[in-house]
Each structure stands twice: as C-alpha cells, then as structure tokens.
Design a protein that fits this description.
By secondary structure, the chain is mainly alpha-helical. The chain has three helices and no strands. It has a domain of about 70 residues. Helix 1 runs antiparallel to helix 2, helix 1 packs parallel to helix 3 and helix 2 packs antiparallel against helix 3. The longest helix has about 35 residues. The radius of gyration is 24 Å and the shape is elongated.
C-alpha cells in the first residue's frame, strides 16, 4: 500500500527513489555552484584587469573558469555551463586585448631597462 502525498503527488513508500532524487539534486547543486564560481572568477579577473591593471592573472583565471565550466557541463548543468564557458572565453579575450591596447596594463617585460644588467658602462 502506498500513501500518497496530496500536495506534491509523490509516494512515500519507495525510499530508493528518494535517495536517487537526493543524489541527483546534490549533483545538480554542485554543477550549478561550479558554474557560478567559474563565472564569478572570470568576470572578477576581467574587471581587475581593466580597473587595477593586473594583466597576468586574466589568463590563469580564464583557464580555471573554462575548466570549471567544463566540469559543470559534465555534472549536468548544460545551458549554464555553456554560458559559463562562453563568458569566460569572451572575458579572457577582452582581458588580453586590454593588455595590448590600454597603456599601463600589461607585462613589465616589454620595456627594456635603461642599462643592461652586467654591462660594462
């Protein structure tokens, strides 16, 4: 005999189904959390590149964010993970473009020093 919950329409006699549902809910929550973490990391790195001028961190943050998006896709958050990957790649390219276009943002290794180290001057 099954006792039916009239509010939600679920039966309460199959504990295996609820364990499967809990596992699926946990997996879905983890996938969503991973994708949101990837979005926050990527957008935060892009904003830091534009306003603070840290150009090196955009590449590593973008790569980690894309990896988190791929992980979220494999965990089951298809649309959110796809959007995470797209936003991460776009912010990665914008950050790299900002390093090339905006003066003052970028690597310090492009400018030569006034005198070479170990020179005979």
């Amino acid at each position: 005999m099954t006792e039916r919950d009239t509010r939600s329409g679920r039966t309460q006699d199959s504990p295996g189904a609820t364990e499967q549902q809990r596992a699926q809910n946990a997996k879905s929550f983890l996938a969503t959390a991973v994708c949101v973490l990837g979005l926050v990391t990527s957008v935060g790195a892009a904003i830091a590149t534009l306003f603070v001028g840290v150009g090196v961190d955009i590449v590593s943050a973008g790569a980690i964010s894309v990896g988190l998006g791929v992980l979220g896709y494999f965990l089951g958050a298809g649309r959110l993970a796809t959007m995470t990957i797209i936003v991460c790649v776009v912010s990665l390219f914008l950050g790299l473009a900002a390093n090339q276009v905006i003066p003052g943002i970028g690597g310090d290794d492009r400018e030569l020093p006034a005198s070479e180290p170990r020179s005979q001057e």
